[in-house]
Design a protein that fits this description.
The structure is a single chain. By secondary structure, this protein is α+β, with helices and mostly antiparallel strands. The chain has one domain. It contains two helices and four strands, in the order βαββαβ. Strands 1-4-2-3 form a four-stranded antiparallel beta sheet, with helices on one face. The chain starts with 8 loop residues before the first strand and ends with a strand.
């Protein structure tokens, strides 16, 4: 079975948590499975895989994204889709 990871990749750099929230909601609505990484400054502050969660970004993850977005540093959200 071929490895289909990294089919699609989204990146959003933002000062506001709204963009990331919209992207997360879009992925949740689509039921996509994905791997997501959130970077704040040069530090990776969150890495989550949804393979066991049916593509849903948890409320805890969304809360972290919103809190970081309230700081002065730019936030980078990377979502990599996977078909399995």
């Amino acid at each position: 079975m071929p490895d289909t990871e990294a089919k699609t990749k989204f990146e959003t750099r933002q000062q506001s948590g709204k963009e990331g929230g919209r992207l997360a909601q879009h992925l949740n609505d689509a039921g996509e499975k994905f791997i997501g990484t959130v970077k704040h400054g040069i530090d990776t502050v969150l890495h989550s895989s949804s393979r066991s969660k049916e593509g849903v970004i948890s409320n805890h993850t969304s809360k972290i994204i919103r809190e970081l977005s309230d700081t002065e540093q730019e936030l980078l959200l990377v979502v990599t889709h996977s078909e399995y």
